[in-house]
Design a protein that fits this description.
By secondary structure, this protein is mainly alpha-helical. It has 9 helices and 2 strands, in the order αββαααααααα. It is elongated.
């Protein structure tokens, strides 16, 4: 990719208006042809209510293209349910969150993660597996985990955080 496409959002010049399939998209820079084709395929599938299997070589911006085209389509709709973006690993979700931060779309994000990832109580965080689950459950049941509610409140903010950022923020604010 060109260096202008990998720079931070604040350093980039405003991208020219982009419309594909009669849907205006807020893409953070001038897209390559492969990116236009990918977003067009996404929009056609969404407009047709179809599933799509799309592929593109590594490094072509699939995640950003999928996010922008899906969010643009959703913005143009008068109704519809939530967009669910699932991933197998936290590192993949971190990439999605980082790409989402590059866009101009304002969305609510909800993260699902295990106690192992989100626990901010040091005595429980250092435990593993079943011992951690049991210690967390016991503290929560007794109402003795003052951190649980503090960590949950960040899930409902407008700030977009990945799992690691959420846990770090919870630890800092405990």
């Amino acid at each position: 990719m060109q260096s202008s496409q990998t720079s931070s959002k604040s350093e980039q010049k405003a991208a020219p208006p982009l419309t594909l399939e009669n849907i205006p998209l807020a893409f953070p820079f001038e897209p390559y042809d492969v990116q236009r084709k990918f977003m067009t395929a996404v929009l056609r599938a969404l407009k047709g209510g179809q599933n799509a299997i799309l592929e593109s070589p590594t490094g072509t911006g699939k995640t950003l293209c999928l996010l922008v085209s899906t969010l643009a389509f959703k913005t143009c709709q008068k109704h519809g349910g939530p967009i669910v973006y699932a991933s197998r690993t936290h590192s993949q979700l971190s990439q999605v969150v980082n790409e989402l931060k590059r866009t101009d779309y304002k969305v609510s994000v909800s993260l699902l993660a295990s106690r192992e990832q989100l626990c901010v109580k040091s005595s429980v965080r250092k435990l593993q597996g079943g011992r951690q689950v049991a210690a967390c459950g016991a503290l929560t049941k007794k109402g003795k985990c003052g951190f649980k509610l503090g960590n949950e409140k960040h899930v409902h903010t407008q700030e977009i955080l990945d799992v690691e950022e959420l846990a770090k923020k919870g630890i800092q604010e405990r």
